[in-house]
């Protein structure tokens, strides 16, 4: 490629977010030259890989920490993923149908789910309120040996699980097959620097430099790293939260979630059939703060320290979290879940909230399984910024940090970027066709 050549758009990061944007730009815009850069030798090898996330298509129906407004936004994005994938020849390698439910155990949680059903039921036609005997017909292991009162909000016949790496790869295949456009995907291309240039930006990589009029960085915690290096997003720091999982025998037929503790800004544990490991139920995630931007990659420690920027505002935020007893106890317990020899014994008690009859001998730690969520620390408000975060500089540069449910929201987030990019470049996209196809 001629060094003087300038791409219309360069996307940094070949995970679910970056590849979804690549697909929308190629398929629906009149932008003709797009490049995607990925530092690894395969697409979606970090947090979008199935071993590193919950493999769940979040729809807002069983996630009890979502308000109705948030739930409906997530539902709309989830529907886009389904509409896209059902038309593919290999959809059975991407989408999976399992029953899913959130269980309320004990008087307080039972009341909470009954009230939630009254509020959410009209917006989710497939949602059912199941009593104990009805739950037993769907998930016998959830009831076997249980003495407490229990109800469940359940959806029994919808797509509920996704192999997000396979979905990412399909986005790339569909984007690069569009005729009459230059859509390049460069693997093993680690980006070291983004620099303002006469035509837009110069992106320096391990395989040479590339020019672009517009750059989108969709690379998890590294997005904030690039933003800080360019002087953006200084009001944010990052708390990388790692999640580990445990395997049990194939005792659950579908996804079983637990009610979220509203004092905890972390996901409650759930049990799922593992789409990558047939014959296993996967339980988790745990939550452990780790000083790295990628799980099991300690080379990212210096990068974490760079974006942490430990100052009085970060200390205030973290101290505020630790002053809450529920959070303090939760974090300490989850640290213990990582200690060999005792972790299975400790985790068993939590796992039995889902599967009361689970035996210690049936529980194994899932090695090399679990990713990192780059939870943003808002240094101005002294709180954690949960959900997706987007820094649109207004100067042809976007940084996306997309923790859960970022994978589910990949096409919804990409559509927002599509609008920003086409407006900035004076281009256009076929909104009507996008609606017909995906909405």
Please characterize this protein's 3D structure.
With 439 residues, the chain is of the alpha+beta class. The protein has two domains: 376 residues, 3-Layer(bba) Sandwich (FAD/NAD(P)-binding domain), CATH 3.50.50; 57 residues, no CATH class. 32% of the residues lie in helices and 25% in strands. It is built from 13 helices and 22 strands. The strands form four sheets. Strands 1, 2, 8, 9, 10, 11, 21 and 22 form an eight-stranded mixed sheet that branches. Strand 19 and strand 20 form a beta hairpin. The protein starts with 5 loop residues before the first strand and ends with a helix. The mean pLDDT is 94.
| Biggest sheet architecture | 8 strands, mixed
Q: Please give the share of residues in helix.
A: 25-40%
* CATH architecture designation of the largest domain: 3-Layer(bba) Sandwich
Task: Say how many strands there are.
Answer: 22
Name the CATH class of the largest domain.
Answer: Alpha Beta
Q: Radius of gyration from the CA trace?
A: 22 Å
Shape: globular
Looking at CATH, the homologous superfamily of the largest domain is FAD/NAD(P)-binding domain
Beginning-to-end CA distance, first to last residue: 37 Å
* CATH fold-level name of the largest domain: FAD/NAD(P)-binding domain
Report low-confidence residues grouped into runs of 5 or more: none
Number of domains: 2
Structural class: alpha+beta
Query: Quick check: average pLDDT?
Result: 94
What portion of residues belong to β-strands? 25-35%
